Structures are given as C-alpha cells and as structure tokens.
Amino acid sequence: MDRRFGIVIDGTAALTDDLVRAHDIRWLPLHVIFGPEQYTAGVDLTTSQFYERIKAPDAKPETSQPSMGECLDVYESAMKDGYRQLLVLVIATELSGTYSVAATTAQQVGSDRCRIEVVDTRSLAGGISLIATACARLRDQGGSFEDAVALARRMAGTVHILVAGDVLEYLKRSGRISGGAALFGTLLSVKPILEVADGKVHPIDRVRTREKAVARLRELIVRRVPEGARVHACAVHTNDPVRARQLGDWVQERFRCVEYFLAEAGPVIGARAGPGVIGLCWYSED
User: Fold this and answer.
1) pTM check: above 0.85
2) What is the mean pLDDT of each run of 10 residues along the chain (286 residues)?
C-alpha cells in the first residue's frame, strides 16, 4: 500500500467523516452506558440517539474505555489491510484508562508482527484530531513512522482547547473538572469557561448567558493568538453546530487558518460535558 503506517484515534476525538476517509484513520471504540445497556459510540448509538436519550431527567450516562479484545480487533484489521506500523493517539491518561489498554494490547501483538506506538496526547476531542491530521500530512509528504511518532509526542499537550459549557450539571456529575467545586459551588445556572491543559480540565471563568460565554471565548482566544497568526484550528461542539459554526467563521475571519474544520464531539464527550458545549482547539503554525 502507498501509506507506510496507519493512524488510530480513540472515540473521544472529534473529526469529520471526510477527514477520516481522506487519511484512512481508524477508531478505537469507546462506550456509553445507560444502566444495564451498553452502546458503542458511532456503531450502535448515533449522536442524535444519544442526545435524545439524555433528555430524560433520570438519564445518567456513563462511559467506558475499549477492551483489549476491541483494541486487538482494530490492530488486526489494520494489519489485514497491509499496515505493519501503527500510530495510536489517545485521550489523556487523567481522563481515561484507554492508554493503558491500548498500550498493553500493543505489547501482546508483538513488534515482529506490527510495530505499534501508543501516544498519550495529553488532550481530547479536537486536540487529538489536530495531532492526527498533522501526522497524516507528514506521512503523505513522505515522512517516516519515526518522524510521525516524534511529532505526536512533541505536540502532546501543546494543542490549546477552550470551551464554553452550557449545562454545568453534567460537568459536575462527571467529576472531571479540576477545582470545579471551589469555583462554581452549586451555581448550576452559570455557563463555565473551561480550558484543557496538560491532560486536565480547568475552569477559568463563568458567565450567566450563552451570549456572554461566546464573547468571553473570543476574548480569551484573542489574548492567546496574535491577529493574523497562522493557525491550525478545529471548532468543536456537542449538539450545537450553529453556534460552533459561528465561532469558527469568526476564527477564520480573524486569523489565517492553515487548517480548519468543524466537528462534533461524540456521545463519550457528551456524556461528560452535556449538550450545548462549543469551543476551539488550535495550535500555531510554528
């Protein structure tokens, strides 16, 4: 095959179907659990079905990482298609046990059959996706597997992520916010502004309305990115494409987007963050 190594991302990544097909990117399955029922996100539970399910007041979705058997199935499928080197990009270890499962399974496959490198991206959602597309471009330009692994490790933790939440109840329930209780207390009506940094989700501000949340997001982005800067960016959302597209249009007008796409974070992220989240993931061209 023309491509010398395969790229695998986990089910928390936010990436368009077109980019998945264009770069032949594979998925590690993650799961959403409603009581005794377990679903595989994107397989037997669509995003629209998930958000319909969580409308119920008693809905308490949980999530789970892939099993070793599922990781093995993904690796074996890639090997069947001719790949003998795989770069696996996964969510930060603080947020999921996916890295441990993916890496342990890779060891069992054996380097004589396929060399598999699992990288903790120190990120999630669009952060994983932007690292994946960077590695795919390097591959398409003739870069080696070693170059791609080095690039992924160098980029890990460097992709900026700022998001505005809409329903604090889900974030509070997930327990994934560092220092969230101290900042928000029981004010479940506020719209939290969150930053993902070094594998952790940090609350950095709170506002009262959706409009103020978008305005605050723009203000924070401008502080971090010089006007006219060349950036690779991904606008992300959970069941709110209109507002996310508006944010993305503003980003493209203000900055020089070398790469840009709009993607929905799937049910695994939605189970933790709830609906109505919008945000931007980006890194500078430098």
Assistant:
1) yes
2) 82 96 95 92 87 84 94 97 97 95 96 96 97 97 96 97 84 54 55 90 90 95 90 97 97 96 94 92 92
